[in-house]
Amino acid sequence: MEKLSCAQCRPPCPLGEISPLEIGALDGLIRSVSFLPGQVLFEQGDPHSGCYLICEGVAILFRRAADGRRLVIGVVGPGDIVGVGSFLGQERHELSVYALTEVRAQHLTEAACERLVTEPSLLTGQFLLALARQVKVLRRYSHYVAAHAGVRERLAALLLELGERFGQRISPKGVRIELQLSCELLGQMIDSHRSTVNLELLELEQRGLIERVSRQIVILDEARLRELAQSFF
Asked: Sign of dihedral through CA atoms 181, 56, 98, 51?
């Protein structure tokens, strides 16, 4: 098994703090995998085969609505876990996941997930902490769809969230979101149409709050963007 490098993980990394002896106990039950941008990790309705710990890169969680719309449930990155139904005894995935960027992950088989549940250890505790942290983030993403705030306010709040998690500071006021974000993807995150999102982004640009460079978004003034999103929070 490849030795994990947790330099990019949000601490604590579930595997990075575990002794080689404890990781060795999972030999044959965990392996390194990688995915290219756009490649699917698993589809909604697929049988569970274990879970994935994201080590590098960013992936999108989404669900197909009854009318065929794709609703983004969350964005996950280093230190996050997808396919958690394996810990709950679910037979099939309730969500789909695809790689937004190149992704490197550790795949834990169902047997490994079962062992973490039935034989509690330090590793079990680390995974529970990671899951609790992730649930907190995913709950915030659900608000972007369910909130009664307008599209502009929800979009502003989402950009601030993405900037905090996946941004690089470029000035005292500014952050560049290190993701390729299309209007369609942003619309799926807040349950809005692509054209509406494009109009709102244009408005934010005209106000001097953001700048679009290719498909990346640069937040030029976090404070003013946060003021706009206050009604959402």
From this structure: negative
